[in-house]
Write a structure and sequence with these properties.
α5 runs antiparallel to α9 and α14 runs parallel beside α16 (491-507). The protein contains 16 helices and 16 strands. The chain is of the alpha/beta class and 510 residues long.
Length: 510
């Protein structure tokens, strides 16, 4: 233990009145692996913070302290330089070195803030648009953690995704010398845009080049971007009823006036839309596999919709969220491929074909508005993560996506069959299920007069996740129903889920 005599003045509150007795300054251990300069630095720092050396106290010179502690001057100098750099000591010309009067910890430590004033209204200062967005209902009350519960819609077979292959592609990209780490094009990583253009042309019959592709963070951002770029507040928009909640939320966020347009077995009724709002600025549709009903828009309706858009000088936003998974025939050509007037904005996503956590999707926009969409994309969040885009570009370009989709098409068809079989044997009179030609969920029709929202809530309390059809409807539903996702669950989970559902419904009285 080393002592600093009072005569050094090291612990003096001022240079006039030194302490009456020696005070222990710091313990130094020459046998420690910690260098002596570091021990001295830590000891002096702790003495300052503990108040044993007062702010403003004069510090002896490095020469004097080295002599007192029997250390080399270089050792003391190193410790003092560190203390100076961190703001614990400060020098004054011709007056020596002093302990700083304002210590770093006082600057870095945040004082406990006073209690926040309570607003008279819980929403004071929030915009009307903010309140509209908060009321759209698309934000889940609780984020999904762990394995999903049957029969949550919208989830792909994450258990069947080729994780090791993806990891190899990621590792190869990280090891390469051309990994894109700087800011990138707001429209997206060029090789991915090229791969997307080739993919949608070959699989969906789209007509486009890479310059028309805008990479976005999932289809929801695509819907939001299309609404903000193409609509002004107050513009009228046709929306399928029932329809996708995310589309409705994006339109409301853009200040659009939504006109719900009914569906029938051929999809959205163009005749009804023209009667309700002939001069609407936009129509939002999911023609290949309507969400949530699963209806496929007929060729006649598609042509009629395109003719209306040409007459009204309007836009069509085509949400093509899961059309790759068609079981009765080849995937149908998209509406964008039939468009000769450059009026269709096509939206696709990799949340269903790859995995939702990737958060990548894309827009295919007409050439004359591609630059505007690119600029708007830059405003949102500059661009999606380029590293993930690069890995996905390799996944598509090397044929892995096409093979994965083929495997999933077979798997989903089998899982749909398992749900239909279990439903027919266990849910008779409770839920009516029938096979569908495409998609990742089935509509389970409930008995007339049933409150599907109340049924969904009761099932959720028992560990079964479903969505009520009424939640997706603006007008009244003709019949109550539940949306049952099957793609993410194997046959065993599906059977157990149906058994639990049957037990709940059999004993439940509304």
């Amino acid at each position: 233990m080393l002592m600093v005599p009072a005569k050094t003045g090291f612990l003096m509150a001022s240079s006039i009145r030194p302490p009456a007795r020696p005070v222990t300054l710091v313990n130094l251990d020459p046998s420690s692996e910690v260098p002596l300069y570091r021990q001295l630095y830590e000891g002096v720092r702790q003495a300052i913070l503990a108040g044993r050396i007062a702010p403003g106290a004069r510090v002896p010179s490095t020469r004097l302290l080295a002599a007192e502690l029997d250390l080399s001057r270089n050792t003391v100098t190193l410790a003092f330089e560190q203390l100076h750099a961190e703001g614990y000591l400060e020098g004054q010309p011709r007056a020596g070195t002093y302990v700083a009067r304002t210590l770093p910890e006082r600057l870095l430590s945040a004082r406990r803030p006073p209690p926040a004033p309570q607003p008279k209204s819980k929403v004071r200062g929030v915009s009307t648009r903010g309140m509209v967005l908060a009321g759209t209902g698309i934000c889940p009350s609780e984020p999904m953690t762990g394995l999903p519960r049957p029969f949550r819609p919208g989830l792909p077979a994450i258990d069947a995704f080729p994780r090791r292959l993806w990891a190899r592609l990621a590792l190869r990209r990280w090891r390469s010398g051309d990994l894109p780490l700087a800011y990138n094009d707001p429209a997206g990583f060029r090789p991915l845009r090229e791969a997307v253009a080739e993919h949608v042309a070959a699989i969906r019959g789209a007509t486009c080049g890479a310059d028309q592709v805008i990479i976005v963070s999932g289809s929801q951002q695509g819907l939001d971007l299309a609404a903000r770029v193409l609509l002004d507040p107050g513009d009228t928009v046709w929306l399928e009823d029932p329809g996708y909640l995310g589309t409705r939320a994006a339109l409301l966020g853009a200040g659009a006036r939504i006109v719900p347009v009914p569906l029938d077995h051929e999809g959205l009724s163009v005749t009804a839309g023209e009667r309700l709002a002939p001069d609407a600025r936009m129509a939002c549709v999911s023609p290949s596999h309507q969400y949530p009903t699963g209806v496929t828009m007929s060729a006649g309706r598609r042509l009629g919709l395109l003719r209306w858009a040409a007459r009204a000088n309007s836009w069509i936003v085509e949400d093509d969220y899961d059309s790759e998974f068609r079981y009765a025939s080849r995937p149908l050509a998209c509406l964008q491929g039939m468009d000769t007037e450059a009026r269709v904005v096509y939206i696709g996503t990799f949340s269903k074909t790859v995995f939702p956590g990737l958060r990548l999707g894309y827009l295919v926009v007409p050439p004359h508005v591609a630059g505007i969409f690119r600029a708007a994309r830059a405003v949102c969040d500059r661009h999606s993560p380029t590293i993930d885009q690069a890995i996905l570009a390799d996944f598509i370009g090397e044929g892995h996506l096409a093979r994965h989709v083929r495997r999933m098409r077979t798997l989903y068809q089998d899982r749909q069959s398992a749900l239909v079989e279990a439903g027919r044997s266990l849910l008779g009179g409770l839920v009516e299920l029938a096979p569908a030609e495409a998609g990742m969920h089935l509509v389970g029709w409930l008995p007339l007069g049933t409150d599907d929202g109340a049924v969904s809530d009761r099932l959720a309390a028992e560990g079964i996740d479903t969505l009520p059809l009424s939640r997706h409807s603006i007008g009244p539903c003709e019949r109550a129903a539940l949306l049952l996702g099957y793609a993410a669950f194997d046959r065993r989970a599906i059977r157990r889920g149906v058994e639990r559902m049957a037990a709940v419904l059999e004993r439940w009285k509304p």
